[in-house]
TrEMBL record:
Belongs to the cytochrome P450 family. This is hydroperoxide dehydratase. It comes from the Eukaryota. InterPro entries: Cyt_P450. GO terms for biological process: fatty acid biosynthetic process; oxylipin biosynthetic process; sterol metabolic process. The keyword Glycoprotein does not apply. It comes from Zizania palustris. Its EC number is 4.2.1.92.
Length: 516
């Protein structure tokens, strides 16, 4: 179990006198933001190649931190650069303390900053700006988020049964593949079945794989690619050609128009009852605008998130090995007797399962970046200094460095499964740790609301992670998998699965048969 370290910064007030221009609330010394942007056009292109190909994202930032004496607030260029981006300049926040400015909606404006230094064409969203692109201060933000929060809360009781169906289908396929052809890639099955899960959990009705056939996943992923291709890398070789095609010009939206029309038609039918109800209760939001927001929530936010998060979760479980697997199996089977159903209430009584999920979200937040523009001149504090940011400057946070900050977490770069398993009489310590688990655009202790930018599906994502771990170790004693890291998500390939002990499995199977 790891302890938290809190840097107050209050003993350094004397040093602040050396730069009277910057007033630090904590008495930290004021400093100019180090770094720079180099030669226009040329430097952003060079930095893009470093970021995507020569260094990779993490080394890109770490090398610049080292170059500037350990400073974790820096001026850097962020991809994609020319010609997609008109301005690549950002102020990067690379530690847990400075990163928190991006979670303060009173200090940063997040209008059209979801993807950073560029904005996808609205033609990809039916001509509307989805909720994720709206700033919390915009009136439309509160109106739409109210509806989406209501949807997430109202459908939460469907999450367990829908995920159970998806999990069973996925792992039946894994077992069949291992029996007949050897190692089985998890990512492909996850992509297929989590799209059905997302739709069933949110809206019910016929899942996309039945309504649209095998093309459902292809259409959804293609639509995501047309939004995010400027941020993708190492998808195909040669990389020089990839850089030219993905990072230099926007892919024209008309190339995905038919696919998006098919997705729109499906969700118009699947979400019809919800849309009918929303028209009555929220007449200020046109049905068409809400429909396109629901598509974005379902495919971009939910499905896109699970596509990244679950492979990372399984990766860490695979690397942890049989010892952790045995502990998790014991906890799950003690809370849910053989034949029992794993519910959201049940997983809430599994402290190790909960800790594993939080730790996976800390190590690999599904969305690595956060952006926002300074609403006014503000002072940003790192652990060691205070920096002045001018109104309108674009702030950027690289979340993996913030959530693996050694000044906050012991052994921050390690996956420690029981990091958040803390005695109930010291719940304040757990809360202080969870304050720095910020994958949801807010602290894990926070609550999504109409007036903030925290993910409205935060609780659903955590619940699905817990269900994944619990169901995995209800069904299996242990497993083995190969892991290959890639820029967005690891490729996880199962090489073996060891079913739960026969007596437990038989009782569970008989109970399931009786319920049917």
């Amino acid at each position: 179990m790891a302890s938290v370290r809190v840097n107050g910064g209050g003993d350094e007030g004397a040093e602040a006198a050396e730069q009277g221009k910057i007033s630090s609330p904590s008495g930290l010394p004021g400093r100019e933001i180090p770094g720079g942007y180099g030669v226009p056009f040329i430097s952003p292109l060079r930095d893009r190649l470093d970021y995507y190909y020569f260094q990779g994202a993490e080394e890109y930032f770490r090398s610049r931190v080292g170059r500037h004496g350990g400073a974790t607030v820096l001026r850097v260029n962020m991809p994609p650069g020319p010609f997609i981006t008109g301005d690549s300049r950002v102020v990067a926040l690379l530690d847990a303390r400075s990163f928190r400015v991006l979670l303060d909606d009173s200090k940063v404006d997040k209008a059209d900053t979801l993807d950073g230094t560029f904005m996808p064409s609205l033609a990809l969203f039916g001509g509307h700006r989805p909720l994720a692109f709206l700033d919390a201060a915009e009136p439309r933000h509160a109106e739409i988020k109210r509806v989406v929060i209501g949807l997430a809360a109202g459908r939460m009781h469907h999450v367990g049964p829908a995920f159970s169906a998806a999990f069973t289908a996925m792992f039946d396929a894994v077992e069949a593949g291992l029996d007949t052809s050897g190692p089985v890639e998890f990512n492909k099955l996850n992509m297929k079945h989590m799209l059905d899960f997302t739709s069933s959990a949110l809206f019910g009705g016929t899942p996309p794989s039945e309504a649209m056939g095998n093309d459902a996943v292809t259409k959804a992923v293609k639509w995501l690619i047309f939004q995010l291709h400027p941020l993708a890398s190492k998808v195909f070789k040669p990389w020089l050609l990839e850089d030219l095609l993905l990072h230099t010009f926007r892919l024209p939206p008309f190339m995905v128009r038919r696919d998006y029309a098919d997705l729109t038609a499906y969700f118009a039918k699947a979400a019809a009852a919800f849309l009918d109800n929303a028209e009555k209760n929220y007449p200020g939001i046109p049905r068409d605008e809400l429909l396109h927001n629901l598509i974005f929530v379902a495919i971009f936010n939910a499905y896109g998130g699970f596509k990244i998060f679950l492979p990372h979760l399984v990766k860490w479980l695979a690397r942890a090995g049989p010892e952790l697997h045995a502990r998790l199996a014991d906890e799950v089977r003690a809370a849910v007797p053989a034949g029992g159903e794993i519910t959201l209430t049940a997983v809430d009584r599994m402290p190790l399962v909960k800790s594993v999920v939080w730790e996976a979200l800390r190590m690999n937040p599904p969305v690595e970046f956060q952006y926002g523009r300074a609403r006014r001149d503000i002072v940003v504090e790192s652990h060691d200094a205070a920096y002045e940011v001018r109104k309108g400057e674009l702030l950027f946070g690289y979340q993996p460095l913030a959530t693996r900050d050694e000044r906050v977490f012991d052994r921050a770069g390690e996956f420690i499964p029981d990091r958040f398993v803390i005695p109930s009489d010291d719940d304040a310590l757990r809360r202080r740790l969870l304050e720095h688990v910020v994958w949801s655009n807010g602290p894990e202790t926070g609550t999504p609301a109409e007036g903030n930018k925290q993910c409205p599906g935060k609780d659903t994502v955590v619940a699905v992670g817990r269900l994944m771990v619990a169901k995995l170790f209800q069904r299996y004693d242990t497993f083995a998998a190969d892991v290959k890291e890639s820029p967005v998500e690891p490729v996880v390939t199962f090489t073996s699965l060891t079913r739960a002990a026969a007596d437990y499995t038989i009782v569970a199977s008989l109970a399931l048969r009786e319920r049917r």
